[in-house]
Amino acid sequence: MTAYDKPLPKIDTLTRPFWELAKDEKLAVQLCNDCGDRHFPASPVCPKCLSKDQGWEVVSGRGTLFSWVTFHRAYWNGFAKDLPYDVCLIELDEGPFFVSNLVDAGGEAAVGARVEVVFEPITDEITLPKFKLAT
Amino acid sequence: MSDFRALKDKVAVVGVGNTRYGNFPETDDYGLGADAFRDAVADCGIDKNEIDGLLVCRIPYYARMGEILGISPRWTIPLPPHGRMASMGIIEAVAALEAGLCKYVALIYANIGRSRRVNYGGEESPNIWDPWGYTSPGAAHAMMFQRHMALYGTTTEQLAEVSVAFRHNAGLNPDAVMRKPITIEDHENARPIVLPLRLLDYCLINDGAVCMILTTKERAKDLKKPPVMISGLGGREAFAHASLSNFERDFFYPQLQEIAAETYGMAGVGPSDIDAFMCYDNFSPTVLFSLEGLGFCGRGESGSFVEGGTLKVGGKLPTNTDGGHLSNSYMQGWALNVEAVRQLRGECGERQVPDCEVVQFIAATPCSRSIIYTRG
């Protein structure tokens, strides 16, 4: 097996819970324990009320396709063999936006389509949440 | 709504300058910046030692720039190398001059992205979405345009009208980097970069520098060229999706609507009064979003609005008469503001818009800004 050669996420205190949950095939967003705001990417304070009392909430993994694009240029060498590849912007049912890859769309992607999360382990530590059209 | 009306016609652009645009590995940001500064100083006829305000953008170290130019001003602002900074910087200079913090401001921008092979994506600009391969400001515009097509039926052929018109205008500008005419078919067949965008939807990357000199209305009277007044301005940020870089979920429409009310209200004009339009065009879709947000056409109607050469010199709304970022030069908004000044002075030769009295600049970005320039 060749070494994984695409960019890996930067894991720090703020983002570690997200990646630990992803490894268990759970998609999570940050939840403010004071005002209930759900947001992503992780923020050191709640963007709505500035509280520091925040945790993570596992979400349904379902959402709608807000938009998507197809990369024909590899900005990293590691992506060259995947060209062209789709990147999607998902509006999760719980509110936050999430960027991911749309897998196995087979040319059927359409703005507003229902999508659901799938998980792809890429290293021993990292599992990437990706999305497919909902069945 | 904030009200900037007190700043109407208080500050003038009195000098503009630029280098040639291209690939200049033999020099650097400072060398190019100094050339543009010399050009602007000569244009306005000021003694450079009178300049007591310095705003630099994309220049590595403001103090070194001052050392090179032999000036130690009493007001200095360095701005980061983002395209949205041009009109932000000009508005800051207006405020500083009107507040009396300085008397003459030189604003200097330089870019060496071509000779240094800047990519505007990948490892140069780490982002949390990198693991999924999402990078580059162009991708954000592709994401927005895909949605615009889905919501309003806009087509890539309509988008092509933007690139084709600006290339036409560049053909009238002897200094533009890309002057060979292109067709809608050329646009449709261009190399895909991040679909739905192709090569001809992307701005150039080239070296060059631009300088503007601003002062108050009273001081402007004594200088070489007729002053160009800053008659309207407005701005609004959209930071809610900043990690997506250059993305706004609603095509910057809410921000642009507020800016339109603010800027037109201050200048006392409306879209139908704009003789030439200078539209920040890092990627072609932003032109469509700008036209809708400011009210040049209805929501979702920009595709049909630009059909048939609307944006060409000689068209209904001459836009980016120098060729813009897509075909003249990637000076990140600065060259378009210089072009606005030159149009109002009547210095544009073959691309001159007849009887040009009101010119508007817009940058639809996470820091959207608009400026209306008029003849002094």
Automatic annotation (TrEMBL), chain A:
Short name of any one Pfam family annotated for the protein: zf-ChsH2
ChsH2 rubredoxin-like zinc ribbon domain ranges (all copies): 19-52
SUPFAM superfamilies for this protein: Nucleic acid-binding proteins (SSF50249)
Superkingdom of origin organism: Bacteria
InterPro entries given in the database record: ChsH2_C (IPR002878), ChsH2_Znr (IPR022002), NA-bd_OB-fold (IPR012340), Thioester_dehydratase-like (IPR052513)
Domain ChsH2 C-terminal OB-fold: 56-120
PANTHER family per the UniProt record, alphabetical: BLR3430 PROTEIN
Name used for this protein in its record: OB-fold protein
TrEMBL record, chain B:
Protein name: Acetyl-CoA acetyltransferase
Pfam families, per database record: Thiolase_C_1
Source organism superkingdom: Bacteria
An MF annotation (GO) of this entry: acetyl-CoA C-acyltransferase activity
Lineage, opening ranks: Bacteria, Pseudomonadati, Pseudomonadota, Alphaproteobacteria, Rhodospirillales
Annotated ranges, domain Thiolase C-terminal: 241-358
UniProt entry keywords in alphabetical sequence: Transferase
InterPro entries: Thiolase, Thiolase-like, Thiolase_C_2
